[in-house]
Each structure stands twice: as structure tokens, then as C-alpha cells.
Amino acid sequence: MGRSAAIIAGAGLAANFAIPAAAQNSPELRLAFAARGLRTIDPAFSIQGADEWAIIHIFDQLIDVPLGHFPNSMDEVQPNLAESWTMSPDAKTWTFKLRQGVKWHKGYGEMTSDDVLFTFQRLRDPKQLAANHVLFNNIADVKADGPYQVTFTLNQPDPLFLVGPLGHFSSSIVPRKAVTEKGKNFEKDPIGTGPYQLVSVESDPSQGVKLTANPDYFGPAPLTKDMHILYIADTTARTLALFSGDVHMIEGVRAPGWVASIQQRGAGYHYDVASPGSIFTVSFNLKVKPFDDPRVRQAMAYLINRDEIAAALAPVGLRTYGINPPSYLGGFTADTIPAEVRYDYSPDKAKKLLADAGLPNGFHFKADTSQREDYQSIMLIIQQQLRVGGIEMELNIKDHTAFHADQGKDTNTLYQRSAAYPPVPTLAIIEQLSKDAEVKADGSGGPNFSHYGVVTPGIDDMLAKAQDEPDINKRIELVHEIETKFLKDMPLLPICDNGYMLVRAPNVDLGYELKSGYAHWRLTRTKIT
Fold first, then answer.
1. Quick one: residue 202, left, alpha or beta (phi over 0 = left, psi -120 to 50 = alpha)?
2. Spatial CB neighbours of 87, under 8 Å, sequence gap ≥ 6
3. Assigned CATH class of 28-248+505-528
């Protein structure tokens, strides 16, 4: 952890700072994110979290969720572009009545069912290479019944269709006319129906995107008229921009000690954390010795103290017990997880398992990790924890992009993944543990980095049964059985939530309490006081 502290110290700042009066009275809300520049504002193709802040304000989805938290039940899902909907008893047919009179930005006409059809045709077309098309594989067909009604037919039952595929930002509705007319240019000249519309994409990549309130918005007008989304990759520069008042909100650093260091240098700042943000897991490569032995994997699970990791990452890290975090419907909690798969910290149990596996003195292995603060910090903590059991993990720290590219070609031993998912309990399991998602050496596979279900029997039959269950409560029971099974086999160890944090200036009122959600949230109620 000394290495982590050194990294954080590199972002050291001087004394206390105050926001200049000029910035306090600014009518423009300015945000800065840890990226080098804009990639795309097309919701179907976005792979950079910083870009999603523009996307969620420019576009709308059929449904909406409460500001500040994931729905605790389907009753909390709210109308948006769809004003009402019905689900068939088998959860395979969903019909949506669209809101009438919704206008596209900048004179592109009225939003109709044809735009909804076009949006989902795009998302389901593999030739379009939409970044999140896997979310929409269960959609068998989409049909319109007149200009204001759309029906989705699903291959398998999905009682969580609203908060799964339709709750993800990539399902934002786009206009057929504008996308067809603009082509590739739509990525940086988008047209939506949302509360903000694009003013400009700045020529300097770091200067990002400027938005202004949509005068024709069908809902309440944003409390702050203008928004400027900037890209400042350097942590020190981004932090100084907040303290100087050049920006009002910045993306925080998900590393031990960073929040405490900021709190010491400036009073009154707000720390908004969306939990889970993303879910951090480690997977054991079952093709590599000694990870082919379940006793070794279980021993490492007992040595990795997840409570310690969560405490070090506070307030952005929360302990997870299963692959689905506690904030998700059906996620295991400290009270609900079966005792035999809790894996509470126990060096004694770990050493006994290692001795039984013929490794009483531990072993040495090499693993790649990313230089990004959250990946590197967690792996440095795990490195220290494993040493208690005689396990020496030699870390090779790589550029974040290169790390992901290599890991996607099956080059690692102890894989790390930090991924955001809709609050759908089967989705993370499908993506990280199903046989069809096995990683491939040519890069064509998925993020099942353990080879679970291929090298050793997995949970695919159990997963298929869960996906065929239309009743939410029964489906959750089946998911609990799946999680208990894979935790016994231990191809993957859930570590913690990797909550997404923005640091907000004292004079900025968010307008609601943030509890859970994705790594982005709407700022329509936010105002500078």
C-alpha cells in the first residue's frame, strides 16, 4: 500500500483554496472528467464514461428511473418518452404507448414510433458494431402500431426489461432523419429530445462539449441553463481547476487516501458517489497452474481481505459478497450470503488449503494490472494480503488501454475487471461466467477470463433455467443458487463496488440525494447558489 500512497501523494496540493466570486455567480455549470478528449456523443457507440455525461442530457429513453438511485421495485420506474406500458404474463411481450408532441432538437420534427424502431434496429445490427448490442440480444422483434405505439417481442422472458436493456443509456432514442442525414458526423453533432441540446464540440479536445437548455423540452426546464463538459486527464490539474473555481465539479480518484487528502485542503466540498458505479472482480485463469486447483483459489479468497480493501477505498468502495452488489435487486448482503461462501478473512483456513494442495510454503506467479488508480491500488493491496499466506504476486503494471487489449487475448493469470451493469442479476453472470463468454487468444471472445464452464463444469444449465423464469422473485432465488455454486468453485472472486465519484464545490446544489446508480447522473435540478 506504500506504492498506492506514493501515487496519491503525486497529486499533492497546497493549502486551502476558495472559489472566486466570479465563478460563484457563473450561469454555466462546468464539469471536468479524467479523459483526454471527446470520443463520441452517439449513445449506441459510446465506450468512454466521460462522454456519457453529454449523452444522458442530450437524449431521452423510453423510461426513466428515480433521480439518485436505482429502482427498488418495478413500481418506481417512471414514464419518459413512453407514457405507459404493459407486460404480458410470460414477460416476453412489452407494449409501450409513446408520449405525443415530443420535439427533436433544432427543428428535426416530432419523435414517433419510427424513431424507436430505427434506434433498436441499429442497436441489434451486428454490422453497426454498437458497443452495447449484447444488452439487446434478447429482443426478437420490434413493431409499431401507428405513430405512437411500439411492441417488443423477446426471445426469453425478462421481467426486468425496463431496468435492464431499456434502463441503459445506450437505449436512448435517436432520430432516423438526423442519423441518416448526418451519418458519421452524428457522433459529434447529435440531435436528441433531452433537456439539453448541443451548442458546440470545441476544437481543442480538452475543452470538450458545450450544452444549453432545450427550449422545447416536454419536461421541467433545467435549473441551470448552460453546461460545459471538459476533459482534464491529469489528476492534479483537474483538482486545481476545482479549487480555483474554474470548474464546479470534477471526477474523483478511486484510490486509497485521495478523498482524505482533498478534505484536508478544502472545506465544504461535497462527495457524490454512485454505488455500485462499476463492479470490481478478479478471475483465476483455470488453464494456468496452480489455479486449476480449487483449493488454491479458495485459499486466495480467504487471504484477500475485502473488508480492508473497501475501507481503504472509502467512500467509493463497498464490500461485495456476490457478483451482484447489495444495491441490486437480489444482490447478496452480509446477512443473506450463505456462510460457506462468505470467505471472511482467514489466513489459517488459507494455509490449510494450500498445504492440502501441496503448497505449504505458498507459490510465486506473475500478473498484469493497469496503471489506472483504481486497478493498481486494489491489486497492490491484494499483493500485500497474499504474502501473509506465502503467495508472491509479481505485478506488471501496464498502460490502461494496453492492459485491456492484452487481457482480452487471454494473456493474464489473475484477471481484473471493473464493469458497470444494469441492475439485472443475470447480466454480470452471463458476461463473466458463461461458457459462451470465454476469452479467446485472438481477442474475439468475451470477459469470461477464468474459462469457467469450459475447463471445468460451470453454471450454464442453471443460468438457462433462470433466464426462462418470468417471475422476478423466483428468478432471484435461482440466481442465488448460481452465485452459491460458482463461489464454491471459485473461478471468480467479487471484490468491491467501484463507486463513481464527483467532487462538487460548496456553492453547487445537486438538487437531490445520490445513493446508487450508474457512473453518470442527470444535473437538471442542479444549480449554482
1. beta
2. 93, 94, 159, 161
3. alpha beta
Domain ranges across the chain: 28-248+505-528, 274-500
Cell numbers that stand for 115 in this block: 424513431
CB atoms within 10 A of CB 153: 14
How far lies 323's CA from each of 368, 486, 505, in Å?
22, 10, 34
CA distance 179 to 189: 10
In order of 110, 347, 418, the CA distances from 124 in angstroms are 24, 48, 25
pLDDT of residue 71: 86
C-alpha cell at 285: 485463469
Specify the DSSP element, H or E, that contains 114.
helix 113-124
Long-range contacts of 134-137 (CB under 8 A, 24+ apart): 134/431, 135/164, 135/165, 135/168, 135/170, 135/171, 135/422, 135/427, 136/165, 136/171
Q: What is the pLDDT of residues 350-409, one digit of tens each?
A: 999 999 999 999 999 999 999 988 899 999 999 999 999 999 999 999 988 789 889 999
Residue 461, Cβ density class (10 Å: 0-12 exposed, 13-18 middle, ≥19 buried): exposed
Q: Which residues contact 343 (CB under 8 A, 6 or more apart)?
A: 298, 301, 302, 304, 306, 487, 493
The pLDDT value given to residue 12: 36
Query: How would you classify the pairing of strands 28-33 and 249-251?
Result: parallel
* φ/ψ (deg, to 5) at 434: -80, 150
Structure confidence by residue, pLDDT tens digits, 189-234: 999 999 999 999 988 878 899 999 999 999 999 999 999 999 998 9
Tell which wins on pLDDT, 452 or 400.
452
Find out whether 167 and 56 touch, Cβ atoms under 8 Å: no
Question: Rounded to the nearest 5°, which phi and psi values hold at 257?
Answer: 85, -10
**331 backbone φψ class: left, alpha, beta (φ>0; ψ -120 to 50):** beta
**CA 486 and chain centroid, separation:** 22
Phi and psi at residue 159, in whole multiples of 5°? -70, -10
Backbone angles phi, psi at 377, to 5 degrees: -60, -45
The arrangement of secondary structure in 274-500, i.e. its CATH architecture, is Roll (3.10)
